[in-house]
Amino acid sequence: LSCPLPAVPLNAGVSVSGTEPGALATYTCDPGYTLFGSDSLTCGGNGKWAGTPAVCATNVAYKKPVNQSSTSRGGKGENANDGLTTTIHDNKHCTETLVEASPWWAVDLLRPYQVAVVRITTRGCCDQEPLQNIEVRVGDSTNIQRNPLCTWFPGTIEEGVTKDLTCARPLSGRHVFIQMVGTEGSLSLCEVQVFSTQEFSRERCTDKSQLSSLTIFNQTCYELQTTEGGDFERGRAYCQERGGDLAHTTSLATHRFLTSELDRRKEDMKTNLVWIGAQKEPQFVSRTWRWVDGTVVEDPLWGREQPNNYNGQQNCAVLDGGRGWRWNDVGCDLNYLLWICQFSPRSCGSPDRKENTTIMGTERGMGSEVIYKCPEGHLVLGLPSRSCLSSGVWSGEAPTCKYVDCGQPAELEHGNRVLTDSRTTHGARVVYECEGNYTLQGEHTLTCSDDGNWTPSPVPQCLFSWCPEIESPSNGEVEISGRRSGDTATFTCLPGHYLQGAKTLTCALGGQWSAEAPNCVFVECGQPETLRHGEITLVNGTTHLGSVAKYECDPDFQLVGNTQRSCLDDGHWSDPSPQCALIECGEPSVPEGGYVTGYSFEVHSEVMYHCEPGHYLVGEQVRLCTRDARWSGHSPNCVYVDCNRVPVLSRGKVIYHNESTHLGSVLEYTCSSNFRLDGEKLRECKRDGKWSGEAARCVEVRCEEPEKPDLSKISITGNDRRVTTTIANRREHVALDNTYRVGSHVTYKCDRGYVVEGLASRVCLINGTWSGLSPKCSYVDCGLPEAINPGTFRLLSNTTHYGSQVSYECGENWKIEGRIRRYCQSNGTWVGEPPKCTEVLCPELTSDLTEWLEVDEGDRRVGTEAVYRCEVGRELVGKTERECRTHGIWSGFQPRCEIVSCSLPDEIPNGRVVRLNESLEYSAVVEYHCLPKFVLRGPFHRSCQANGTWSGITPHCQVDEGAGILTDNTVDGTVNSARGGGGGGDGTAATEPGYTGLWAGLGVGLVGAALVALVCVLLRARQRQGGKETETNSSVAGGVGDKSVSHPASEIISYSNLSDPTTGNNIYENIVEDDEYADMSTGHTYSNPDDNHHDNYYNNYNNHASQPTYTNGEVLTIGGGEEPMVTAGVNKPPAHIMRRPRLPPPQPPVVPSLPATSPSSVVTINGVTLASNGT
């Protein structure tokens, strides 16, 4: 058999390896919860999971108010629920009571919780007896014995262990008590945790705050901000950032909880004023206070003389530690106060689920919903969905699954049935269809419903008008009135048989009887189920139809159900099987002023009646639950008695325990300092209304001289005649005639090497004796301490007895780990473990390396040198080596790696250098380009190397010896012929051999020169009219534009070719037009007045040669003359182009096409300037 899906408790998850026998279901709890029970279950061969079901619970006692029977040696009660699980007391970490009878410790959970487990951590050695006979009680009473017993551990609990004390059954209560019963001793607890499933863990509150600052009460998260200060709005903004607000709408119980938390933190708080979320309405005359959520504060807990609303400016509320944490109204702008945040949990955690159920939906936040599903064929019993409420809990209860099987659906005569889902379990469907000549009467489709039946009923029929013959059943008879529609057939069975089916059948329209013919069957019910704690008697000794079974219970049990059952004709016993339940008497009546103890109401159980303080019992105190389910006897009564107060006590006072004087109350006489009580200390109010005994009186008390042990001296302080009395030497049995007041202290000190065995201090008690027994001095020797290697030790006093000290040192380049000094303890051992010597190593350097830096650090011992190096392309800045020095510190500082940079590459004459990506760093690349008519000799590009130099050698530009004068006189690679025309139509006339083209060009040039001269005369006349002394050269280029740029007059030379004759690429093709390089030389202007017009290009060049000449500002001799021509502006890019090669130069100017009548180019030949139209 396979197992169903296992059940999962609240706040837990499960991992299932399978559902076959041997499979495991492993449970884990949500963060902040502890798992109790089995963390895994095993699928058994019987189809059930084996093991104790797991429970995930959280600690609800953390930092709640505590109390204990007494306190000793710094063992405060709150040490047991401060969250520290240490087993060392050290007078501050654990609780400790005085040595007394049945000491106890208690925690107030501030509201009832269902407690499952109480976990205690016991104190480790020493000087403390182990715990024994521990009793845990949980309930709502502050009186220990009035609370139900959770569990009792009769044995001894080991020292320094954590022990889980599990309740026999979960108990609900507000108070949890832990008590050592039936013994006298001291109760010491280092930590107590109370686990419940009815609260969520702090981990669900917020992820933006420290877990230690969060606390939970009544399913609400609180954060006590006790370190950071601010005004009211600052505190509120802080809380809202974490999804909450300042603490608001707090109940009285919540107020008590928060104030107890503040009391715990009071010593660490810089102020005792703490913001809460309450403000007064802004109107000056209003006295209404509202919480920050807008609701009215109904019962504000104002402190004394509050609220005073000084000057109408105190409109915010705080908890005032100086007024017992009651409310105080202050100004909202005080910027140093603390605050308390309140917010709902972020999620509801993991929902629980019953066996064989699954959950759809993974969200667990506020408002999320989970859907429960059952396996196919099962019915969901309960609400199928649950929502995460704002309180952090899931709505409703987890549903269960019920297996439902409707069985095979009825056959349809003269028809067919089809199971559409191929099953007969819950939700399955069956579809009916009739054969030919028959009509279906009823529903076509039936569904397997929740109650295990096919619905809707009845099953449909295929009707025909004539019914078939019908035969008598075996062991029975049939009487037929006919076989036509409306006729009937009535069936009867022989005695002892059961008619299985309808007794009467009717012939219905459609040719069928109203039901199948019944059968007469012999009925057998079988043996009835066994009766636990009882017996079954078969009256007639049979189990067939009509048999009767009689049920009776054992003594102390009563029958729940029918006393008899009959075998019915359906083969089942009538009514449910009864059960024998243990007799219970119910809850007994409780008299006014009394209460009842005893929590079992079963037969033979006893309850005991008690009266409240001030009452005495009249009647029987014990009543017994009898077998007739009634309590024996009658309920007793409680009578009230009051003894009133007694006269005052001279030199003392009377203390009324519990501030009462009624029956059972106790008064206590106490005397002032230096007085002792003469008479009974306690008196009790008796039933006759009088106090027991006689009144006591106070007389002065003094202690005799204490005895002095050998090898010691004693010091007595607190005497009324001297401040301190020291007795160093005194013969035995010789006493001084001194007495000492109550409260005087005697301190014992032993000679060197001896230790006090017993109490080192005694006090003069109220009974005139010194507390405890006189100690003695015992010699203690610890022997030589353990040696360390490599190292030495030195006895500081050259002794090894009690109090001696030893000092340890390690060798050079070794450091000591552990105690440097140890001392001889009273138990004859040196305190702690001897230290160890570990070799000094410098810290690793590889973890702090910067980018590109590498290091070889060696073995990191003292004296070792670490060597740094950089990756290729980087250079080291700083020292290459660092030494590991004494104390494990590296010398100097870590160097860094900087990328290698090369200097600016050399410029080349008649060319330019292009820096790719504007970089001079390692791996940067520069390219070299020559001006037209020059050829690059050397590498085309060079790269920056790791040593900071450029690869290869600097190339140079050499004049191309094969370049002719007019063979490539182009702009951007085009022949300087008129656009749209040319000598032979192919643009090649200028390059053909012979002089025909030359003379033709000369003729055209002369004509052009005449036209230019005419234009110049007209322009000069125009300038004179306008008073301007400048002229344009628009006619030189032959283009007309909307705008023109004026330049000083200059002579005209031919256009120069700015393209590489080998590649056709312009060397400035990457410089944008609007850049600083648009004006590359004197006389160049680019103008683009409108996007729809051609660019106009103006050039002023020195006309000294018959073809372009490229120099670097040198003096050239042309045509036999010696006139300098500076052409660096044309032939050599400016210096800034060499510095910023990435910025592209402007596109070369476009020479507009001119009409055939206008010259398309200007050519200078042997000093004569000609205009050519392409011929």
TrEMBL record:
Domain Ig-like residue range list: 409-506
Alphabetical list of SUPFAM superfamilies matching this protein: C-type lectin-like, Complement control module/SCR domain, Galactose-binding domain-like
InterPro entries: C-type_lectin-like, C-type_lectin-like/link_sf, C-type_lectin_CS, CTDL_fold, FTP1, Galactose-bd-like_sf, Ig-like_dom, Sushi/SCR/CCP_sf
Top-level lineage group: Eukaryota
Disulfide bond positions: C29-C56, C374-C401, C493-C520, C553-C580, C611-C638, C671-C698, C750-C777, C810-C837, C870-C897, C930-C957
Keywords from the named record: Calcium, Disulfide bond, Glycoprotein, Membrane, Metal-binding, Repeat, Signal, Sushi, Transmembrane, Transmembrane helix
Bilayer-spanning residue ranges: 998-1019
Domain C-type lectin: 217-333
GO terms, molecular function: metal ion binding
Coiled coil: none
Domain Sushi as annotated: residue spans: 1-58, 346-403, 404-464, 465-522, 523-582, 583-640, 641-700, 701-779, 780-839, 840-899, 900-959
Protein name as it appears in the record: Uncharacterized protein
